[in-house]
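Hi support team,

I'm opening this ticket because the web form for multi-chain structure prediction keeps timing out on my end. I have pasted the exact lines I submitted so you can reproduce it. The total is 688 residues across two entries, so I didn't expect it to be a heavy job. Is there a limit I'm missing, or should I split the entries? Thanks in advance, R.K.
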Amino acid sequence: MSTMSRTEISALGEFGLIHRLTKDIQPQQPSTEKGIGDDAAVMNHGDKRSLVTTDLLLEGIHFNLEYVPLKHLGYKAAVVNFSDIYAMNGKPTQIVVSLGISKRFAVEDLEALYSGIRLACEKYGVDLVGGDTCASMTGLTISITCIGEAKKEDIVYRNGAKENDLICVTGNLGAAYLGLQLLERERIALRGNENATPNFEGKEYLLERQLKPEARKDIIEQLHKAGIHPTAMMDISDGLSSELMHICRQSGVGCAVYEDKIPINYEAAVQAEEMNLNIVTCALNGGEDYELIFTCSISDYEKLIPLDDVYIVGHILKPEAGMKLVGRNGEELALKAQGWQAFA
Amino acid sequence: MSTMSRTEISALGEFGLIHRLTKDIQPQQPSTEKGIGDDAAVMNHGDKRSLVTTDLLLEGIHFNLEYVPLKHLGYKAAVVNFSDIYAMNGKPTQIVVSLGISKRFAVEDLEALYSGIRLACEKYGVDLVGGDTCASMTGLTISITCIGEAKKEDIVYRNGAKENDLICVTGNLGAAYLGLQLLERERIALRGNENATPNFEGKEYLLERQLKPEARKDIIEQLHKAGIHPTAMMDISDGLSSELMHICRQSGVGCAVYEDKIPINYEAAVQAEEMNLNIVTCALNGGEDYELIFTCSISDYEKLIPLDDVYIVGHILKPEAGMKLVGRNGEELALKAQGWQAFA
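Hello R.K., no limit was hit. The queue was backed up. Here is the completed structure from your submission:
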């Protein structure tokens, strides 16, 4: 690994690194319709399109087996991939699962992990069609690739947001992050006391958001029924700020998001208060909510209102207006993505 | 990870483990044509089929960065996936690449890795369409999923071998394993002597087979031109014995392989002699050759003879005959797969 010059990965960050590695890749295959840069790649098979997305989960980075049960981990690992396919307005159909496993795992542990993967597959109607299983020197590695399908005209990319479009989010934001903070706090508090059990009474919702997230299949179905075709869409895995900035940059537009419109769960707000955290910051930067953010034409407003669990949080502006958060008193702040700092 | 009973993974082995985890999975999606159990899964998109395969490579298990240059590693990681698609008689078209990387890697290291992946993509006409890049606590993790395409009638599975079919292999076998032994020997010999350079003069071919394998796209093209449709096919990643046993078990047949017909490279034979290894054992159990093994009807014999780099090594028998290796003096031995012992 001797190199002439050495640039630390932290100097570029995740997106800078990916850009540097992939910037001049030119697709050659006629079936490649969309490559790097969205929630999933798109392949052309005649009138149908297939979608492909992949996620790598590493022990110690993405999960901590001290508090994540293996069954939940399997469920979440599958669901986060389904979420990427829904975020393209597609339907997940197949997954392949690769596992790197060390000797400390027993067959029963892997059965628990697989039972979670299979539960997710059953619930979302997805087939587990293959994979690779191998030994690992260190922790548990889970790599899942999901295949999906969609009609050409249904696919929604990140780059279609237009001036005056409405910005919508689903569910509520920040709760998964607070669930993680809670688990971490208890882990540290109970360290060295193996017989103690943490008391999570009244916090079940926050834990569920962190440990057993769901992908918003129901929203995709609602949009379809209502005849709404979003102009841009993503799933919210890194926090609202980061995802909205992706949509604005790729669409070449600005935006305004209203702080008081961001949907917050009551238990999450209480927990943030207790932990002395700003709940809006948790919603903007927390991540792992796996809700959807989409933009749609203002002419869809009437169709949007009856939808369950969909909230209008702002609108798209000219690019010159920048990307801003409008506070409760009308003050404007520039949106910032704290997002992914793992290499820092 | 407390479980009521604990079964060690080594008690089941790789295939036993996969069987236990996946045995009662029933596909639900109409587009799933073939799930777990072949080189790739098959999805139905009207008259076209798409194929999907995945490989997980972990530092310390699948590669050792002390002697594997990152560019070669990237090249090989891509090519081994292409090989699985060719083994279905398909054409690889897209890959997604996930990397788990620790801080000891610089941007330049990842550029080297990617340059190898991209070189492989250019050579085989495959598009890199997505992936996931994240931090790792420990070593380098590479997960690649490859998508391919084929016409329905062209796809070759493992389970179609029939009594009297010819068994063919391509290229030569055992050289990749000897290349690995050579690299390991030199690594140990030079340990603690950082300025010494190993002398690999005259061994270049063996190193290339280990460090820069190729997928047999050319063979698939030759078979197509010759109008030969194999009855069963696999790529040889775990050694001839293991792969042939998969074909026989899945096809419900027996086989005879003739020791003196197995194609061996001269340099490999010399190296085996020098290392006091049996070259036929290397060919049968060595692995990582990424050649193809296929069976075809005896009526294709005339078409088979003119093909370049294809060798008939035996034939398919009734299931009662078992799976046997016929030695140079006519003695018969039962085929054994030493294969994958990583959990032992």
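A quick check on our side: The two ends of chain B are 21 Å apart (CA to CA). Let us know if the file doesn't open in your viewer.
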